[in-house]
């Protein structure tokens, strides 16, 4: 659980699950030498991976390469099951910034063996979220500039207008597979420019209209 500002309040965010959409920007799929999927593909991160704004991402000894992937995150307000795309937006509390931290070498090994990506995605601190939750009605998620810097150097820069599957479609699709619960987090995919993190790095990830998520990086001792 982490606490995030929401308007004049503070929300204790305790999702039942973190749903992450893969290859939802064509340029990212291309840089990963992957085919753009015809329908949304997603995986899960455990809530224990959550990290608040200003936290420390820990690089695990088990991995030799850990990458950053900035994403728009949707915070669910109410539970929904088999909801239509037309009604999907009614179930959103708000939006925030997240970075899908990925042990890339472990993911590559899992892909080669046809295994799940859980180890590569699920380490503690691998889901930084923040700095706040912007109310759903205050911004349009379909055209937001999104970016990430490492030590001040721009690594990722795009716009959510380039998402293949927009927010409403993602919510509808996922809700036909599993029930979305209040405070569940939906990470909508990353644009191109993903790259490695190293001990001592300082990361800023931003989305216009939401704010800037900041965290540092340390090697596991």
TrEMBL record:
Pfam families: FAA_hydrolase (PF01557). It comes from the Bacteria. Keywords: Metal-binding. This is Acylpyruvase. GO terms for biological process: carboxylic acid metabolic process. Residues 17-217 form the Fumarylacetoacetase-like C-terminal domain. One of its GO terms (molecular function) is isomerase activity.
